[in-house]
Amino acid sequence: MSVKLMAKAWEMDLSQGEKLVLLALCDHANDDGVCYPSQEYLAQKCSMSPRSLIDQINKLKKYGILTAERRQKSGGRLANLYVINLDNFSQSANSAPAKSACENSAHAESAPTNVQITAELPAKSAPSFKEEPSKNHQLEPSIIGTGVADAPTVPSEQVKKSKQANPDNVACWEAYARAYRDRYGVLPAANQKTRGQVATLVRYVGKEVAPALAEYFLSHNGSWFVQCRHEFGCLLKSYQQVLTDMQRGEQMTQTKARQTESTQSNYEAAKSALAKLRAKGLA
Q1: End-to-end CA distance of the chain
Q2: Which of 110, 112, 123, 160 makes a 20 to 30 Å CA pair with 131?
Q3: Helix, strand, or coil (residue 8)
Q4: In this predicted model, what pLDDT tens digit does every residue of 249-282 receive, in sequence order?
């Protein structure tokens, strides 16, 4: 949740529906204005029909304060990626809807008593409407009661340059954030440093391995990792060790390392003693 964006959104000259949808988006965005809740989830959150939600989103896009990018993954569509930029708000673009609203109000006051003025239908009574096939409105794991959607996930450089997040970095961060929250009960802090670290890890181990490795890291009980509360930088510095442990299905902790070293020392001592006995013809 971006408190900075929400505070600014409250002060904007928007209609009730437009402001409600904008606040819902800000509630899921990081300070760069990036979020990706599904339309189905937003409609439920704002208590409006999917059609009404799409209308409000299109108005926000028309005002210049919202852009939307489609996200695709093998097997189907993901929720759209939204980027909020309140500094782009165009007052002139908002003036036309405002005038229309005034005119509608005037007509409503002068309408005959036997003519029913139809208000926007609540979500429960609104006609069923979906912009896309239902399979494309799936809620992502980060949205279904996990809280991870609130965690900043996108490198700020990507947002500033292309207004589109790197999906490989997003997947890696989400896996790490979920595992971090499961272990510590809070979400990890995200900033420019951690975003860069996530991108680096994805480059080091590949996009297929990075999410699983980031999730496994939180189960590793190496003393240094535990002492540092599994900071992402620790994973980046020791990614080869953690990757080997994950692939072998075992954890090389400090205690186990000492045991291994002691075993190896005993083996070397026994081997040396046996060689001396053989040299004397006693073995």
Answers
A1: 74
A2: 160
A3: helix
A4: 887 666 666 666 667 767 777 777 777 777 777 7
